[in-house]
UniProtKB/TrEMBL annotation:
Residue numbers of the full-length protein present here: 324 to 587 of 587
Histidine kinase domain mapped to chain residues: 41-257
Residues of the PAC domain: 1-37
Organism whose genome encodes this protein: Geosporobacter ferrireducens
Protein name: histidine kinase
UniProt subcellular location: Membrane
Length: 264
């Protein structure tokens, strides 16, 4: 609670009383604190690849790379750092667009089986490249949803990218859906490294990475974007995970009828 006391003066500048202003600042201060932390995080995350790029470029420019092989490696590092920077900027743009425009969600009718089959086709190949098995099960009934296909696809991509990233060779990943009376539940499950109990409540936070040393390729923004999308769609996402056994992320898609589609 912030209390501001100011003197109350009359036209001749005589103090005739006091005015007290009471304001609950806890909420606004908390928001301000979160904003400050976020800006600090963004700056830090952007600075890391930029510093690496600069060090590599300077070494090359000064002719300090001892041989051609080293030069080549430095150029490759530079390409990777640039890609990381691009990913980070893209993710930040997606997040800020989602947050700044509350009316951004346009709804359309689409078949969930079709979307899942489409995404599964691509991920079966990506998983295969890493020697990870990929299973998928469609709904037996072809349900038409009234939601945003592009955004649902983005959530699937984030969850499947993570499933592949955090599942070692020889493991498996599953994409499946189940039908309930008023909703479809979509799950992405893996037999990967899992998430410890002390980390699980933070993984949807921006920039949170469980193992900072090993997660250098990630931005720590994927799940934050997925969470934001799910919220925008008015849906829910949950995770169940056991270290060294695997993780299952499940989100809902309500079967709310679109305009012109009469509910039964
Ligand atoms: P990142 O870009 O680091 O993958 P995310 O926001 O997508 O960022 O995920 C946050 C963190 O949650 C990851 O760094 C990882 O530690 C953990 N995580 C996410 N998905 C999985 C998974 N399927 N298995 C194990 N850990 C996961």
């Amino acid at each position: 609670l912030r209390i501001t006391i100011s003197p109350l003066e009359d036209e001749q500048n005589h103090i005739v009383g006091t005015v007290g202003l009471f304001r609950d600042v806890t909420e606004s201060e908390r928001l301000e604190q979160t904003r400050r932390e976020y800006v600090a995080n963004v700056s830090h995350e952007l600075r890391t690849p930029v510093s690496a790029l600069r060090a590599l470029a300077e070494t090359l420019a000064d002719g300090m790379a001892p041989d051609e092989d080293t030069k080549k490696r430095y150029y490759t590092h530079m390409v990777h750092e640039t890609m990381r920077l691009t990913r980070l900027i893209d993710d930040l743009l997606i997040l800020s667009r989602l947050q700044s425009d509350p009316h951004a969600v346009q709804r359309e009718a689409f078949k969930i089986n079709r979307l899942m089959a489409d995404v599964a086709e691509r991920y079966a190949i990506l998983a295969g490249e890493k020697d990870v098995r990929f299973n998928f099960t469609l709904l037996s009934e072809d349900v038409v949803l009234w939601s945003n296909m592009g955004l649902v696809e983005q959530v699937l991509i984030i969850l499947l990218d993570n499933a592949i990233k955090y599942t070692p060779k020889g493991g498996s990943i599953s994409l499946y859906a189940s039908l309930e009376e008023d909703m479809v539940k979509v799950s992405v499950s893996d037999t990967g490294i899992g998430i410890a109990a002390e980390d699980i409540s933070y993984i949807f936070d921006r920039f949170y990475k469980v193992d900072k040393a090993h997660a250098t390729q990630g931005t720590g923004l994927g799940l934050a974007i997925a969470f934001e999308i799910i919220q925008r769609l008015g849906e829910r996402i949950v995770v169940e995970s056991h270290p060294e056994e695997g993780s299952t992320f499940t989100f809902t898609l309500s079967r709310n009828p679109g305009p012109g589609i009469k509910s039964l």
